[in-house]
Amino acid sequence: MATAARMPLYDAHAHLVSADLVRYPRNKPFVEGATEAAVFGPGTVGRPGGQHGPEPVNEKPSAEAMRRWMLEQGVEGIAAVQKGMIYGTDNSYIVDAAEAHPDKMRAIIIVDPQANETPDMVRDYARRGVIGIRFFGVGVENKAVWLSSDAALRAWSVADELGLLVDIEAPAAGSDILIPVVERMADRYPTLRIALDHVFLPNVNAPHFGIDDRYAGFARRPNISVKFTSLNMDVIREKGISPEHVLRRTVDFYGADKVMWGSDIGTSSGTYAEMIDRAFAATRLLTEDEQRAVLHDTGHQLMTGWRS
Length: 308
Known about the structure:
Elements: H1 2-5, E1 9-14, H2 34-40, H3 63-73, E2 75-81, H4 84-87, H5 92-100, E3 105-110, H6 118-126, E4 132-135, H7 143-148, H8 150-162, E5 165-168, H9 179-188, E6 194-196, H10 216-220, E7 224-229, H11 230-238, H12 243-254, E8 259-262, H13 272-282, H14 288-304
Parallel strand pairs: 1-2, 2-3, 3-4, 4-5, 5-6, 6-7, 7-8
């Protein structure tokens, strides 16, 4: 791990939150349901108890704090992902933050695929340098229709037209109905980059940690990639499973060139330094080339078009 510790890092999933409540009000438009609470349990994503203790550290970093931590931890860049549980589709802060730090941060905005104004909004923000759109379906009852209706296709199409990526929040329960939807969209837009948050939250108590033939279509489509995040590691640890074994399975299944690390800072518990320590520890069973891909190359390439 001494070698891995010297590797540069790229954080493919970081949430930023402003302390300026007047300019950037926290609308809290989404409400987590009982299914999310039941799946994640104590000690994960900011819930007290479990392996993070009764008073977990739950950072909500501003862009300035994040840039400072990145410098301290050797993180070259981040995908600044809109925080849906606080800002919903008001992307003002995430775009302003990334625009102020273009050498370190690229924004992924949340859009409502059913809203008539979404295509124009995406075009406007694309001119300001956003790299992707995010479909965040917390609180949406029929996620399959929400993502595949005629209205939704306009959002997919404008992302494809503009060369943006599409980031999809993993549902805490009921993800099976979305699998064929994502596969159809990947086929419909074969050059569109699709990133699935949190490895689409497989059931890690199942054989092969739930990463099985249900996801074979994801693995064989070259334009679908997955993020392995602190949220994954928290869920895994709470179930008494070692994250490094799940990450080894993830890389074996998808390939290291389709797996990227994301801190999930702003949602998951812990300091940024702790999240990075856990990320390095989770790569213990990977080769040096695989470590470099997961911790830096895959995310940096997908998010920015960077080539080594």
